Amino acid sequence: MEGKQGGKVTLKDFFTAHPKCAIGFSGGVDSSYLLAEGLKLHADIMAYYVRTPFQPDFEYRDALRMAQALSAPFTVLEVDVLCDARVASNPPDRCYYCKKNIFESIEKAALSDGYPLLIDGTNASDDASDRPGMKALNELAVMSPLRLCGLTKAMIREKSRGMGLFTWSKPAYACLATRIAPGCPVTKDLLHAVESSEQYLRELGFTDLRVRTDGTNAKIQVRDGQLIYAAYRRHEIVNKLSVYFRSVVLDLEGRS
Length: 256
Fold this sequence. Notes:
- This protein is of the alpha/beta class.
- It has two domains: 11-169, HUPs (Rossmann fold, 3-Layer(aba) Sandwich), CATH 3.40.50.620; 187-250, Alpha-Beta Plaits (2-Layer Sandwich), CATH 3.30.70.
- Helix content is 42%, strand content 13%.
- α2 runs parallel beside α3 (57-70) and α5 (94-112) runs parallel beside α6.
- The two termini are 35 Å apart.
């Protein structure tokens, strides 16, 4: 797809060519900006948020808040991805099967609602070779306008800030299943343990963190600037997280 003058494609070009579409909406930086721009360009967009055991509650609240702020049509779909053994067994390509389940559910609902084209918030900074889920998107012919238009994460944050979107500074957030070591079965109880642990750490003031696990033990990752604070609060952190995990350690390399 090219712009009218044969140059770089813009979102205006995209939504002029595709004025009616459904968006797989997470409430994160990318899909929020894409939805906002599409609506500003007068496209007919239906936002579909898929609730699974892999998303924490705050992600749903952010998505709902953004949809309301934009006055965007918003539909919530409930999908239990753990019903698929290829997801629950947590193989290296779990993301592929999970993404396929999610977007097949969106596609079915969108077609029923009269939206034949499905788009998502993949951007130009995303490494396709490192994201098995992109294979599923390609198979389902999901279009990624941000990537098509060459918009990087940094560009999207800056443009989101200019539009007044609260997501402009939101930390990147991968689903809860990414915290669980490959090969370790994913269960609702383990996902709950991770979510509860991370929520507790956020309440203590940690702003960008991960609680990773092999199913029994927990490893906390925080930004370099908060390592000393984590060590200072270590006794209460261990006391809280030991409800869910046999051992709790702090990754001294921190999150990059």
